[in-house]
Amino acid sequence: MKRPASRRGTRMGRADLVDESLSAVLARPWRAALTALGTVLGIATLVVTIGIAATAGDRIVSRFDRLTATAVTVVAADQGLPAGPGEDPLIGWDAADRLGRLNGVAAAVALAEIPPGTAPPVRANAVQDPSSVSARTLGVVAAGTGLPAAVHGRIVAGRFYDAGNVARRDRVAVLGEEAARLLGISRPEDAPAVFVGGEPFTVVGILGDLRREQALAAAVIVPPTAGADRLGIGPVRRVVVDTELGAAALVARQAPLALNPGHTAEMRVIAPPDLQRARGAVEADVDGMFLVLGLLCLVVGAVGIANVTLVGVMQRIGEIGLRRALGASRRHIAGQFLVESAVLGLLGGVVGAAVGVVTVVGVCVARDWTPVLDLALVLAAPAAGVAVGLLAGAYPAWRAARMEPLEALRAA
Amino acid sequence: MNRAAARPLVEFEGVERVFEADPPVHALRAVTLRIDEGEHVAVTGPSGSGKSTLLGLLGLLDRPTAGAYRFGGVETTALAERDRAALRAGSLGFVFQAFHLLPYRTVEENVMLAEVYRPRGTAAPPRRTRKARAAQALDRVGLGHRAGFRPDRLSGGERQRVAIARALLGEPALLLCDEPTGNLDGDNTAVVLDVLDELHADGLTLLVITHDEAVAARAARRIRIADGRVVGARTAQGATEGAVEGAVTGADEGREPAS
Questions:
Q1: How many Cβ atoms from other residues are within 10 Å of residue B133's Cβ?
Q2: Where do the ABC transporter domain residues begin and end (chain B) (predicted)?
Q3: By C-alpha distance, which of A305, A244, A263 is closest to A31?
Q4: Under a CB-based contact definition with an 8 Å cutoff, are residues A340 and A393 in contact?
């Protein structure tokens, strides 16, 4: 005959704990699914929120290509005219030299143009031929020699005028690609002339492939000296600066000071928005609202699990009594109900993460975006589900463990 | 049965159970009784007489308000809850009127449940042979062919035999049955009682609480309870009665008198 066992408590194997809990959850699959639904929604909302925010942030950042991020334009107010008689213009033609000394400036060019509406007709020869339309209304722009570099243009034929041309006040011109086509000029080496409002200019080159200031493609570009002499093109209206990558914000701050320290207020600076801040702002916008929504869903999910687990405890009072009679300690009972709710939470986390990922990918496919998904997020979701389950199961587990075995057996 | 040679398994000495209420309910008053290994005892009495309270105390599911309870020589009233749980798991088997089978588990799984909680310090039987032992226990109650069934597909008598098989898996020293036939019709009652008789014949110590005369008649000894007092319990005989009283005092101090 067996004698009473030694007195050191009872043990429950880990495999048994998992077995018992899983069996209890899987015994009512529909109930389990509905219980986990709140957690599924919560986790899915969080994954979608964070996933879409990351995707949208990436998308906005990808719009800022290198070209946009390195463009700074300083525009003179009041058409750049001198403040009073005898004073210098707001921005001088030495703007490129002044800005070139700034750290982070790759190239700069000062621009002035004949205001639209007063632009003189441009023609390729002096002959008045009534049978063909040879006169064109094109933009006429005076620009420094740094123009091709500053606008990322390419000289497709001939050359750009140089400092010598400017200093000698040579009447030379460079045509934008489109302007050259309209005027029928393609070989600057033949030294063709264009007549701007009757003033002849020798074409020395054709500028094409403009990446900035694309309006210049249909313009006649002349040196500031000749432009002022012959066409009365006035003071500098704006300065286009090409910065080093990442230096735009700094250059934008320093440029007005370098150009005219006494009148910085009269200059308007157009600079690209700060990349980091743009991305952060977007993510914060999207995140803030939906994170709260997702957390709210999680709380609802937790309450759902707590509620159903509590109902389960009440329905299984007899089972609790039986397990205690079979030797289960209070800790075993609490452990089982905790694991059961953790399993429900895990279920919610895994399904929620899957739903979230599918939604993010679906939105991206529909919008033709590139989905950006953090693997850590997808892995953290089930863990968050387990945490929700454990939190939700704490009270029911405590209630179950507190029951007196004899009363539990009688109550059922 | 030679009672002089028998070793005591259960020793109640002046056990009282008072439930806190206004006025307090004296469910058991100064119960002294002894059950030896291998006995088959029936506890009878009217409803509310204290039978169920007695079973709760015997099964270590409840603690007496006063008195001493030695189980297999071990004083249990001062034991920590987890040690009492170990005794339940290792030495006690329960059969309830309500069966207490888990509806969502198969017959076999219900039986195997008895091995989920094992006393520490004992060599736990290997988990992978648990199924085989459950099948053995089911064979012993004649239900080997029902292993894969859910309890709701069984008759009442079959369900109670599953519960008995579950109790047997823990190899208990004492099988406590609380109205085991209370929910059964005549035929099923007979089958369950036959199973219990067989187990007793194999050497299992049985205590059956019942209000059914036919059930009580199967037992070799009958203890009657009325109004919380034991009437006609055979305690340690005649001359030893006084010695038992003395042992109660000793038990309070020493906790584990030599058995």
A1: 18
A2: 10-252
A3: A305
A4: yes
User: CB within 8 A of B78, min separation 6: which ones?
Assistant: B255
Domain with A210, as residue range(s), is 66-273
**pLDDT of B221 above 70:** yes
In a shared domain, residues A250 and A283: no
The superfamily CATH assigns to domain B8-254 is P-loop containing nucleotide triphosphate hydrolases (3.40.50.300)
Strands B8-19 and B25-36: antiparallel
Give a yes or no: residue A249 inside a domain: yes
Cα distance between residue B51 and residue B57, in whole Å: 10
DSSP 8-state symbol, A125: S
As given in the structure block, the two tokens for residue B131 are 């199924």
Environment class of residue B159 by beta-carbon count within 10 Å: exposed (0-12), middle (13-18) or buried (19+)? buried
Domain membership flag for residue A6? no
Chain B, 55 to 84: residues with Cβ < 8 Å from chain A are 56, 59, 61-62, 71-74, 79-83
Is-cis flag, bond preceding B23, omega within 30? yes
What number of C-beta contacts closer than 8 Å exist between A and B? 141
| Exposure string over B30-64, b if 16+ CB within 10 A, otherwise e | ebbbbbbbbbbbbbbbeeebbbbbbbbbbbbbbeb
The strand pairing partners of A207, in sequence order, are A155, A176
Q: How does residue A265 score in pLDDT terms, banded at 50, 70 and 90?
A: confident
Of A15, A327, A410, the CB nearest to B88: A327
> Which chain A residues are Cβ-neighbours of B203 within 8 angstroms?
1
Confidence of residue B257 (pLDDT cuts 50, 70, 90): very low
Task: Identify the pLDDT of residue A137.
Answer: 80
CB nearest to B87's CB, from A4, A330, A409? A4
Q: What is the pLDDT of residues B59-104, one digit of tens each?
A: 999 999 999 999 998 999 989 988 899 999 999 999 999 999 999 9
Helix (H), strand (E), coil (C) string for A238-279 = EEEEEECCCCHHHHHHHHHHHHCHHHHHHEEEECCCCHHHHH
A148, burial (CB in 10 Å: exposed 0-12, middle 13-18, buried 19+) = buried
pLDDT for residue B174 = 95
Could you say which of A254, A273, A292 is where a domain stops? Answer: A273
What is the spatial distance between Cα A208 and Cα A210, in angstroms, rounded to a whole number?
5
Cβ-Cβ contacts under 8 Å, A329 against chain B? 81-82, 85, 117
Nearest Cβ partner for B122 among A6, A318, A329: A6
Q: Of A273, A299, A315, which marks where a domain is finished?
A: A273
